[in-house]
Amino acid sequence: MPLVPAEQLKRLITDILERVGASPDVAGCVADHLVEANLAGHDSHGVMRIPQYLDAISAGKLRPDGRMQIVAEASASAAVDGGRGFGQVIARDAMLLAIKKARAGGVGAVSVRNCSHTGRIGTYTRMAAQAGLVGIVMVNSGGGGQSVAPFGGTGRRLSTNPISIAAPSGGPHPILLDIASSVAPEGKVRTLFLAGKSVPPGWMIDARGNPTTNPADFYAEPAGALLPLGGAVGYKGFGLGFMIDILAGALSEAGCSRPNPADPSDGMLGIALDVQQFTPLSEFKQRVAELAQYVKSCPTAPGFEQIYVPGEIEARERERHLRDGVSVDPTVWEQIEQACSRLGIRAETST
Fold it and tell me: Is this model's pTM higher than 0.70 or not?
């Protein structure tokens, strides 16, 4: 696989996005977000999204200059419109607003509508945790992007509807949960499909409702579907995804899953809790650190070397990729090279 140093890859993506109309600050924000997702080991939310974004810009579905506008506001809340801008920029600004409101009153909640793909939502909860707050973010696709079957069903009815929660830890990195309410996000299926690999058992069903490990079944016609989180108790993941559709979609006016929806347009709810207005931050961090230490002290089951707390694996992956470089799927790199050729940019790797 092509191997690219992280900073070099960020500069390349920034250059691409500036050439298609993004301002330097917007292009830099999106590039940083995508490469950071690759660094954390979540290639499904990384630079593989660039061809998707370029197509959306060409089709007029994504505005490189789109910015957040506040449409309703109270002391502890706001509703904002994303102007069809880059989701990474709109979600960042919405979370900054939630943090500002939490600083003033303990809690801040901001809903977002009319926003393009928000990417890896753990980025936004991490912002809060690094500022000494607890962050909670949930996202739907505004009724579009349906890819998940309800528990007991065979057809697509929900998006993957992720949720992230992050908290200050007292350690080198925050405690950070970032999960889809489905067994896996669509991007991970796409990553395996592009690589010519099978998906793990239990991720998917084909159009007839039969279990499958062939990612091509997801993109076939008729199409298969992802399964809700939980396996035999998938009603738990389904219930979680259903409620996220309400909180991220109905509350924001982005919309919920429905027949014949418009193109995907992310709805989001971002919540920030100022720890210091509930309990001293130092004591909070100590309690979190003690919890993590206690859980990690658990004896390991056969086949496991150690216990990881949420966000720990991603932090280690980031250190490794910063040292060794970011591996980019050959098909994705070829698509990026093609885009660079059209835009008059030279794409280089270290290998």
Answer: yes
